[in-house]
Automatic annotation (TrEMBL):
<dbReference type="InterPro" id="IPR050109">
    <property type="entry name" value="HTH-type_TetR-like_transc_reg"/>
</dbReference>
<keyword id="KW-0805">Transcription regulation</keyword>
<dbReference type="GO" id="GO:0003700">
    <property type="term" value="F:DNA-binding transcription factor activity"/>
</dbReference>
<feature type="domain" description="HTH tetR-type">
    <location>
        <begin position="13"/>
        <end position="73"/>
    </location>
</feature>
<protein>
    <submittedName>
        <fullName>TetR/AcrR family transcriptional regulator C-terminal domain-containing protein</fullName>
    </submittedName>
</protein>
<dbReference type="GO" id="GO:0000976">
    <property type="term" value="F:transcription cis-regulatory region binding"/>
</dbReference>
<feature type="DNA-binding region" description="H-T-H motif">
    <location>
        <begin position="36"/>
        <end position="55"/>
    </location>
</feature>
<dbReference type="InterPro" id="IPR001647">
    <property type="entry name" value="HTH_TetR"/>
</dbReference>
<keyword id="KW-0804">Transcription</keyword>
<keyword id="KW-0238">DNA-binding</keyword>
<dbReference type="InterPro" id="IPR004111">
    <property type="entry name" value="Repressor_TetR_C"/>
</dbReference>
<dbReference type="InterPro" id="IPR036271">
    <property type="entry name" value="Tet_transcr_reg_TetR-rel_C_sf"/>
</dbReference>
<dbReference type="InterPro" id="IPR009057">
    <property type="entry name" value="Homeodomain-like_sf"/>
</dbReference>
<dbReference type="GO" id="GO:0045892">
    <property type="term" value="P:negative regulation of DNA-templated transcription"/>
</dbReference>
<dbReference type="Pfam" id="PF02909">
    <property type="entry name" value="TetR_C_1"/>
</dbReference>
Length: 237
């Protein structure tokens, strides 16, 4: 009898969920800009034309991948404190979640994501602001301001994690810790600032130790507190 041909593994059924999950996984691996419709189709062992049955274009696909990432965010509850504490927890969780998916937060810098998971966290964010006494007009502006803060902070985290992965790949794991990377970054800035002429750049020169002091999570918390304090101050005027 003739030999039985070796069977190829059966391809997974193509679906919107599979396409979006694959896209987010590729962003995690390669970064936002490197993920094209063709790259996604190759990963799914299909042709690019097959993807257009499910999405209009790359922009829509990336918006869906962004929303899938946001779906990992767990909303805070009363155990997390009052409205302000819960708002800070919520923002921190969104930042951390998006930052863990490389630069998928880039989507929010050029578009207004409106997927169901994004709307879920936005609803909670606005609800907490109103609970804190922020008026409706300020709430609407705060959604945009906090969105920009979240996206930029997430991209900063993603850049650091990407640098850490690169250091590990180049056999320099000892430099891949947050403490070492922060110290090296501060040292580079310090070298630049201290080389400036005190006459030409008197303020930068004077503030150099503070400008390069790092701060990490404390600095991020300070920024968020200033935003919320500003919203409350605006309300009191």
């Amino acid at each position: 009898m003739p030999a039985t041909p070796r069977a190829r593994p059966e391809k997974s059924t193509l679906s919107l969920d599979a396409i979006v999950a694959t896209t987010l996984a590729l962003v995690d691996e390669l970064g936002f800009e490197a993920v094209s419709m063709r790259r996604v189709s190759l990963a799914l062992e299909t042709g690019p034309a097959s993807l257009y049955v499910y999405v209009r274009d790359r922009r829509e696909l990336m918006a869906l991948a962004y929303d899938l990432a946001v779906g990992e965010v767990v909303l805070p509850d009363e155990a997390d404190g009052d409205w302000r504490a819960r708002l800070e927890v919520l923002v921190d969780r969104i930042v951390a979640t998006l930052g863990s998916h490389d630069d998928i937060a880039s989507v929010a810098l050029v578009d207004v994501p409106t997927g169901p998971h994004t709307l879920r966290v936005m609803e909670e964010m606005l609800r907490l602001l109103r609970l804190g006494g922020v008026d409706d007009a300020a709430c609407a502006l705060a959604a945009d301001l906090l969105g920009q803060y979240i996206a930029s902070s997430a991209l900063e985290i993603a850049a650091r994690l990407r640098a850490q992965r690169e250091l590990r790949r180049t056999a320099e794991p000892g430099r891949a810790t947050a403490a070492v990377m922060s110290a090296e970054f501060s040292a580079r800035l310090d070298t630049v600032y201290r080389s400036l002429s005190p006459e030409e750049y008197p303020t930068i020169h004077a503030l150099a130790p503070l400008l390069t002091g790092g701060g990490g999570g404390d600095r991020a918390s300070w920024k968020l507190r200033v935003i919320i304090d500003g919203l409350l101050a605006q309300h009191s005027q």
